[in-house]
Structure formats: C-alpha cells, structure tokens
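User: Can you predict the 3D structure for this chain?
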Amino acid sequence: MKFSLILATFGIKKIRYIKELLQSLNDSTFNEFEVILVDQNPENDIELLFFEERYSFSKQYLKSEPGLSKARNIGLAVAKGSYIAFPDDDCIYPRDLLSQVYGFLQDNPSIDLLAIDTRDTITGNKLPYTKRAVGQFKMKKNDIFKTVTSISIFAKKYNSFFFDERLGLGAEYPSCEEFDFVTTYFKNLKNCYFTDEFFVLHPNHTDKGTSTLVNKIRRHGVGHGAYFKKHFFFVLSASLYQMVVVPIGGIIFGIFSLNKNRISIYWAYLVSRAQGFISF
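Assistant: Here is the predicted structure, written as structure tokens:
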C-alpha cells in the first residue's frame, strides 16, 4: 500500500461533498491507496455511502468521538500506507494527483514530507493557504505558514508521529493542528519540500463579510497562540512576527487609513492569539 488517505468527517450535511471526493478518488489513475474514513457522527449515513459498491478502492471505516486531531490519530494508528495524507471531506483530488505525487516521491526518495498547491474548486485559482508559495523548493521551518494546509501534505508515515489532540477543530484550541504536525517533521527530519506543480481542489471559504471573518479569527486565533507558545523558540522569528508585528501593524494601518473593518480584524488577531498563548 503506497498511500493511506485519512478522511475525518463531522456533520452529515457534508454528504454531498463526500460523494464528490469519493468519486474523484474512485476515478484516480493510481490505485495503490486506501481510504480510512473516521466518522465522528452518531448516525450511520456516511458509513452506508462509503461502502457503496461503486467505490472500488480499499476502505477502512472507523468511529470517533468529535475532535479532528483525535479522529486523525485513530486513522494513523491503523494506516498501512508508506505515505499518509489528510483530505478534507469537501476537497477533490484531480484524477492524476496520486500518480503525480507518487512519481515525484519515487524520484526524490529522501523527501519526508511534500506540500503541494491548493486551488479553488470552481475557478482553479490559487487559494490563500498557499498563494504566497511559488515554484518548487526545499522548505525551511518558517515556510510552514505559507505552504502548509492539512489537505495538501503527503508525508512518510512514522509510527511515533501523531497529532496533538489539544489542537484542531473540536478541541480547546481549534486550529493549527497541521502546523504542529508538520513541525514534528522539521524537528526530527527536516527534509520537507513544496511544489505547486501539483494541486488539490477545495472550495474558497475566504470570501466572507467582516463580521464572519472576525468570528472565525476569534475561534481559530487561540489555536495559533497555543501553537506559537508550544514551539516559541523553534519558530521564534515567525512567532514574534505573527503574534506582534502582523496584528499591531494591521491595527496601526487601519487607524491611519480610517478603516474600521481592518482594525476589527487585526484586533481579533491580536487578542485571540494572546489568549491562546497565555492559556496554553
């Protein structure tokens, strides 16, 4: 088995998207992979969908209490693949993606973790997660913040590497679990690469109003603060930049430009990240 794709899902309203993902995997030109679906729902609707005969790939179905990192760790514990990946339940894998990624990793066997591009499902444009990363390069630890999102990493499986269950959706600090997971690779291995030659498709959820964005920042900012406290000295320059320079700079710019929305956004960054840092 070459790839274990660990799909942690919560909320039966996402069934339509899960169907699209599973169909994209079923259409893959590469077949040496398994899908490990970790269902955090009490209902069995997704289980019934998952085991429909039309899906010919290898399957494992598991149950988990709510918690993204907890669910992924359950999947990691049973994964059989040499490489692991973490598709979202609303992303889509292009038909040749797994073939392309596997070929790249075979040509570069020393790579421990590969991060790829993310693009909008509808427009094909680069998503904000990776828009600042261009080309192909060996990643440095501070590149994590412009190259990594959980849906776009393909990593060698190491039995001692797991997600911190204090981080991620459903946990006390509901974000940054993927940054933390990738940081484990940098602390222990360091051979991580990015390429925008390949990409995974995902809906663009960033085009929201200011109030929605501020609420999201408040929820997720505590996770960023927790992450930066956990790895403060390892990513010292990024910690100071993200915790201090970015939010305070944004507030100052908002004041001078008389932009209340900008002030609200960067104030939310400052306060939520500080709260997470202090309480972690």
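The first helix runs from residue 15 to 26. Strands lie at 3-9, 33-39, 58-63, 83-85, 113-120, 136-138, 153-156, 192-202.
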